[in-house]
Structures are given as C-alpha cells and as structure tokens.
Amino acid sequence: MARPTSAFRCTECGWSTVKWVGRCAECQQWGTVVDAAEQTGIVRSVQAVTPTAARAARPIAQVEAEHTAHRPSGIGEFDRVLGGGIVAGAAILLSGEPGVGKSTLLLEVAARVASTGRRVLYVSAEESTAQVRLRAGRTGALHDELYLAAETDLATILGQVDQVAPDLLIVDSVQTVSSSLSDGLPGQPSQVREVASTLIRVAKERSLPVLIVGHVTKDGSIAGPRLLEHLVDVVCQFEGDRQTALRFVRALKNRFGPTDEVGCFEMTGDGIAEVPDPSGLFLSRARTVVSGTCVTVALEGRRALPVEVQALVVSTKAPQPRRVVNGVDPSRVAMIIAVLERRAGLGRLGEHDVYVSTVGGVRLAEPGADLAIAVAIASAMRDRAVPHELAAFGEISLAGEVRPVTSATQRGNEARRLGYTTILDVEAGSVRAAVERAMMASASSRERELDAAF
C-alpha cells in the first residue's frame, strides 16, 4: 500500500513540494510555504450556472471577428512585430533592460495613435507627469487626445480608465503598481499577478488594448511570476546595447501573428526612429579594400542583414596566443581556427594572436557566419584583401565541409540586391576551396585595380 504524502505549496508563486521548507525555491520568499490542505481548506462542490444568451456557446464560424482586426499604431516596425498592428482587447507586455528606451517607444506609440483621433491613456507609475511631459515635448509626442496620469494604485488607475474612456491604455510599469486586494510590496509575485490579471480582465471586458511595461532581472528574464507571460497575449522584448544607438524589438509570444519578426529602431536626440532598411548599418565605410574583412548575410527574424566581420592576425612569441572576439561566439571562433589549421592549410595560426569583431555592435549567434569568419581570418593571415563584391555564408563542420544554412535563397537575394556579385556558400564544398576561391577573387580584383590605374 502506497504511503500517503502531504503536499506543501507557496502562497506567493504556487510552487509545490512534498516536504515543508522555510524558503520557497521558486520566488525565494521566506515563510510562504504552507500545507496545501490548510491553504485550500474544505473542498466544496461547484454548482453549475446556466450561461446567459450573450455568453452561450456558438459555432466557431458564427463568431464575429471584425472588431478584433489589427489596427496600425503608426510605427511600421512596431506593427511588423505585432503582426500588422494592435488588436482590440489584446494585452501586450514589453520588457527590456533599464534605459534601453521602453518608455520612449511607448510614448511615441501613444502619440501616433492619438494623432489618428483615438484617445490614449498613458499611466506612469515610475515618473511624475511633469517628467513625462518634458520628454514628450523633446520627442514631439504632444497631442490633445493623449491623456497622462501618474498613479501607483490599481483602483485609481481603473477609475482613470472609467473617467477617460480611452481606446488604448499604457501602464508603465506593472512592477510598480500595487493593489489593496493583495498583500506585499509592489513588485512581489502576488502583487504582479493581481495587477496583471486585473488589467487583462479589463482589456477583455471592454475590448481595450493594454500595453504593459515589464522589468527584467539581472539574468535578462522578466521580473515577477512566470504566470505573467502566460496571461498576456503578446510578449515583446526590447534589446539594445547602450554603446550603440540601434535597438531591436522581438516577439517572444504572439497570439495574433508570427513570432519570428524583428523591428529595428535607432535612438536619437529627438527620441526613437524606426529603421525600415538597416542594411548599411553593419558595414564599414572604407573605400579601399583591407585584408581581414568579409561580409556575411545574417538573419534577424525574417529579415536578412549584411554584416561585416573583421579579423586581425598578429604574430606573437607568447606560449598561449590570445583569442579576442567581439560580437561572435568565442567557442565557434576557436573551432574555426582549429579547422583552418587542420583542413585549410593555415598551420601557423597557433603562433599568432587572432582578433575577430563585427561592425556596428551586432551579435552573430547563428552558425551561418562561420564561413565569413574563416575567410576573414585567412585573409588577415595571408594579408590579401577580399574584394568588396564578395559575400559568404555557411556553416563549417569539423571535417572542413561547408554545410547549408536556413533561408539560403533569401540571403543570396539580399546579397545580390546590395551589389555582391561573388557569393561563397555551400557550393564551395569545403572550407579549403572557399578560402582559395576568395584568394583568387582577391587577386582578380587587384589586377582590375591595376588595369584601371594604368
């Protein structure tokens, strides 16, 4: 006969365990783990309730869907990520690191929507109305249909919604709003869960789209309970490096559109501006060809972007040569160097320091950039410049083979559209053949330059 076990559950996040512990392993709160029987009490049967005519189940083909169509926000890149625009009654969560520009983006969205005649309520729980007004004046986001409130109490925010009757609600942010119906300080899992569930319920009942700003933890995940991401309809992540002005918006979850779209923005002194064609942001502006450079075509969502990879090889007498990378995976660079030494005939790389970097601060995490990194290192090693019209993309195996990558046709079409006539891809066969072909193209380009000079 099986021995009965008693379950214990956390009152803050719902984490369960078979034995009592003093600290919850999920939300790290002390004294919140109690016996599940004590927490739930006596189990009572639920009586069935007859639904009203308005809520009666109907065939799916008879359900009207016209009012749930996408409505453009006025920012094309943001609409691209959302799948065409903002859906009525949708709950959208936008997360990102501090200072990346979340509030600036949503303030611009609010101004664009208000300019179309729809009323927008922007609730700031982190800044005063004067501070938001100052930023709106700098970015040109002033409009009569844009209402501003600085509130941290959930009940007061709901009162503002009743009074203003907006067509779009923006709450910045969910971790700083508290509800009197839940215990704890703002930002704790119970408070975040209560505030988010209430805002989502209001959005569904009134067909009111709600944009919610969410904080992130030090490891990059959204702060608060994981339930928050399950409750909302769309989860967008705002990414960007503080050292560069480029910003990306990615859709991690989207019930109304694709999740592989990426929106590109640029932070300027006047606010945030969308970049519909970022093809030239990751290429150097050097007019003369220089050894150690090669262009690859990377995929950001469904968008193909040309990225220039630069390499520098310097001889050293140190027992352990340096391998310094920026914007690429260090382990993949080490693997490519080993393949070049063993399979491509570059046997003296172990006596040189190798530096690899990307232009524009972009990060290449996909294996499709392996071939461009290999060509750039070989070009720097042999001190032979690769011509400007050459692009390379492909994955390199340990056997020295060039493997195909996803969306190769789209990458090739984008490279040809930008003027790259010589493309190194899976047709090269091996990394040795690709390197030799790049060196031959370099020699041909040098001969054409000499003929043009004379």
TrEMBL record:
Motif position, RadA KNRFG motif: 253-257
Protein name: DNA repair protein RadA
Pfam families the UniProt entry points to: AAA_25, Lon_C, Zn_ribbon_LapB
Gene Ontology cellular-component terms listed: cytosol
Domain of life assignment: Bacteria
HAMAP family: RadA_bact
Keyword Zinc carried by entry: yes
Gene Ontology MF, one: zinc ion binding
Organism listed in the record: Agromyces mariniharenae
